[in-house]
Amino acid sequence: MEKETEMKQSKFKRICVFCGSSPGNKTSYKDAAIELGRELVSRNIDLVYGGGSIGLMGLISQAVYEGGRHVIGVIPKTLMPRELTGETVGEVKAVADMHQRKAEMAKRSDAFIALPGGYGTLEELLEVITWAQLGIHDKPVGLLNVDGYYNTFLSFIDKAVEEGFISPTARHIIVSAPTPKELVKKMEIQSVDQNSKTEKLGWRFILT
Which tens digits make up the pLDDT trace of 90-123? Predict the structure, then answer.
């Protein structure tokens, strides 16, 4: 009964997940990708992601697809030979380049979550954080901090706040938690707060 209630109360129809095309060196990273996929399914949430069929991207897309939810993969044509191997799942949308990929993923999503990943994951994550800071969107941004993977990143952000480069208010754009269940719950709460407090700058047409 509790699970059914959570599904009905979810504010998100689609969540964009940024993650690596590599599985990483720890089993916990792969487990977290699958667990996040199942958490989205349990809440009746569809997945938007980078379109790859390998690494953490492949694991979460497979988990969501097998759970019966819709999967939308957005991938630049130049990356298709590298990141698509074997059979793909769900809907695959090929785009011209990385800029179009990020814009399309953002447009189709109600919130963003970053799993562990490398340069590409961090670049996508920082861009949506910056957009939120500028008022381009008011969608929650979450870090799935598996085994403390993002601890040093969060420490860097706190240092930037301390040194006056990031405002304390902007620091709160980022929501983090060690488990998918806890993270999505925190993002649901932040979504309610943002709807009542965020000042929009009139740029939302970029993502709609």
Answer: 898 989 888 898 999 999 999 999 999 999 999 9
Question: Look-up: residue for tokens 């309610």?
Answer: 192
DSSP code at position 148 = G
Query: 168 to each of 157, 164, 196, how far by Cα in Å?
Result: 10, 9, 19
Strands across the sheet containing 46-49: 91-95, 71-76, 46-49, 14-18, 111-114, 141-144, 174-177
pTM: 0.87
Q: How far, in Å, CA of 156 to CA of 173, rounded?
A: 15
Q: Are strands 174-177 and 46-49 parallel, antiparallel or unpaired?
A: unpaired
Q: Could you tell me the sign of the dihedral formed by the alpha carbons of 144, 207, 156, 168, in that order? A: negative
Q: H or E stretch including 160?
A: helix 151-162
- Dist CA 150 CA 146 (whole Å): 8
Q: Counting Cβ atoms within 10 Å, is residue 170 exposed (0-12), middle (13-18) or buried (19+)?
A: middle
Cα 184 to chain center, whole Å?
Answer: 11
Tokens read off for 187: 């993002």
Q: Report the distance separating Cα 102 and Cα 95, nearest Å.
A: 10
